[in-house]
Structures are given as C-alpha cells and as structure tokens.
Amino acid sequence: MTDLDLRLARRAAGSGDELSAILSLVNAPGLITFSGGFPAPEIFPSSFVRDLVLEELGGSAGVALQYTPTEGLASFRTALASWIKASQGAAPDALMVTSGGIEALQLICRTLLDPGDRVLVESPTYLGAITAFSGFEAQIDVVAADEDGLDPAALAAALASGPVPKLLYVIPDFQNPTGAWLSTERRHALVELARQHGLLVVEDVAYRELGFTDEQRPSLWSLAPDVVVQVGTFSKILFPGVRLGWAAGPAALIPHLVRAKQNSDQCASGFGQWLAEAFLQDGGLDTQLPLARRTYAARWAAMDAGLSAHLPPGFSWTSPRGGFFAWVTGPVGLDTAALLPRARDLGVAFVPGAPFYAGRSTHHALRLAFSATTPDEIAEGTRRLGLLLSSSGGSL
User: Fold this and answer.
1) What share of the chain is helix, strand, coil (3-state, %, to 5)?
2) Residue 123 bridge partners (DSSP)
3) End-to-end CA distance of the chain, in Å?
4) Cis status, amide bond into 124, omega within 30 of 0
C-alpha cells in the first residue's frame, strides 16, 4: 500500500501536534500539569447550568437544540454586543459568533491569506496561531516584544522592510505564553502604525477579562475598529465545553468570515449560545469574573513562591499581572523539549518553548500554566520542576 504520508498536502506535512499533546494531559492521573491553559473547574457555573437546563430547556429546545444562523443567534449577538460595549466602551458594528477563538483565526486565514502572504506575530506567541498561519502557507515574520508587550519601534522596522504584511496578530492582555501586558502608550502607537500602513490587526482577547485586579487597558479594537478585528472566546471566562467565541471587526470583513464559516462547521453550538446568552442576561459574569481573578491571582502567587524557592540559579521568569501563564527562561544551551520524558517520570508537565517561536529557534525556555492547579499542587509541582532543572538532579 502507498505510504499515506506521501499524499499529505504541503501545508499539512509540517504541522506540529503540540496542541493535541497538551489536551491529552487533561486530568491525566498522577501528573501535576502546568502544560495547558485550562481554566479552574472550581469556578465553572455548574449550578447555573443545571438549573437553567432543568427549568428552561423544555420551552427553549427549538432554539437551544437546533441549528442556528451562521453568524449566530440574533438574540445572543445582541447580548454579546451589549457586554462588549460595557467592557470595552464601544459596541461592534459587525459581530459574528464562532466555535471558539481558534476557529475565528482559521476563518481569518481562510478569507485573507494566500500562500506566501506575510504575517507578523509577536515573538514568542501563541503556538495555535503559528499553526494556523503555517497551515495556510503564510510567511511568518516576528516582531520583538518584552514585558510591556509588542515593541512599536520593532513593528515600524518590520513594516519598513519586506513585502507589505496582510496582517499582524497580537495578544495585548496577559499574553500567551509570556503573560506580558501591552502598555496603553504602545496600544495607541500600534494602531496608529496600522492605520498609516493599511495593516489589519488581529487582536486576541482570550485573557482580557482575567487581570488580577479590576484595571483594564483599552482594547485595540475599541481604539481602531476600522483596522482591528477582535477574536474572543468564552473558553476562559465561562467554560471551554461550550466552544464559543466571536469575531468583531470592520463591517466590510465580517460578512466574508461568515461565508467562510458556511464551509466549515456552518454554525456554532445553539446550546452554547443559548446558555451563554442566559448567563450574560443574568449577570453571571459579574459574579464569575471577580472569583476567577482572585483564584488566578492566588495561584500565580503560589507559583511565583515555588519558582523562587526551587528553581536553580540561571533561571528567570516573567511576572504576569493576569491570565494563565508564566514564561521561564534557562541558560542558553538548555533543551527543554529533551527534558520532557524525565519530567513525566517525576510527575510534572510543562510545554517547551520552541513551538511558541516561528521557526522554533529558541530551546531554552518553557511555559508554565498555573490556572488549573491548586496552590498545594503548584507547591509540589514547582519542587519537582526544580529537581528536574537543577544540574545536580535528585530523586523523589
């Protein structure tokens, strides 16, 4: 029989399986996992969902259990637009519902990218975005970033050289993987550059609502809705099981994304939209988000303490002010991917840093997610991680 690998399309042959590997560790027995950006199940609104289904589903089955319009239920989009306006200070002119944030990225790629088109990303950045852009055979170029987020001077330099980019992908709030928070000054500079160069900015706001305090900075979309398409998700702020997200952006673009969705899954979950609409109208996020912020702040404090106590000299890490992640950097020459088998033996998991770089050029970093582990688990997990990273090793 012919080797099926020989039949793979060029865009598929080089794709990685890091996301599948991360998801495979959900609830893995005997493992303290710092790998996936999973929300804390303790804050899922289980009682709300149970009561809503028991009391309301019977009369709403024709909506909740049926197909929906491709752009999403009109009533849910109205509720979502109202929530976005309350949170970000502006109501979207054009808004569609997606099956999570990653689908929104896929729709943008399918609609805008031809093979060889240039895409700019932060370095490092979300590995799912790199996979999406690579899957559509884009040329991915990186823009330097630091603890204050993407550097506008580096962006200006990237825009001044090479082909005109089709888009820039950026995570302004508590970035994945570093936890960086784009400064307000840089937000204004970024959108001004986008306007000057006719650049479409894809703003991923997955963690925007999950700062450790109530402080918020203006979304890029609220500053420049003419050049920004915002990608959001309910996976982090409601629960991932609904697989629900949105795209808000220029009115000329969103209808094309809707048409692209007609050729993917046709429509997002009607049940998820019905549930999320009820949650928004009930004010459930007003209760859930403060609890989430307190929970994740406490878990980051536990991780920071554990890293300080157990990591050997030569390692440093970021200090996020929200979100799910910290970024650990070790000595040059360290290969964090090579440590994975022993990490598993020690009962701890993390994600090596290389997949977060376009070109996989950096190997001495790793990402730690603190969102789904308790403070006690974090204390033990960082102890095991310290054993792994120490030059002298050790045994449990």
Assistant:
1) 45, 15, 40
2) 144
3) 48
4) yes
Q: Are 130 and 121 in contact (CB under 8 A)?
A: yes
Sign of CA dihedral 246, 221, 191, 367: negative
| DSSP 8-state code for residue 68 | -
Q: Please give the model's pTM, rounded to 2 decimal places.
A: 0.93
CB 101 within 8 A of CB 107: no
CA dihedral 281, 286, 287, 293 (to 10 degrees): 140
Helix (H, G, I), strand (E, B) or coil at 391: coil
- Tokens in use for 329? 């950097």
Enumerate domains of the chain plus CATH numbers.
Answer: 4-45+286-389 (3.90.1150.10), 47-284 (3.40.640.10)
| SS3 sequence of 200-264 | EEEEECCCCCCECCCCCCCCHHHHCCCCEEEEEECCCCCCHHHCCEEEECCCCCHHHHHHHHHCC
- E strands of 315-356, at which residues? 316-317, 325-329, 348-349, 351-352
* Token pair in block for residue 204: 């991923």
- Each residue's pLDDT tens digit, 123-141: 999 999 999 999 999 999 9
pLDDT computed for residue 162 by the predictor? 87
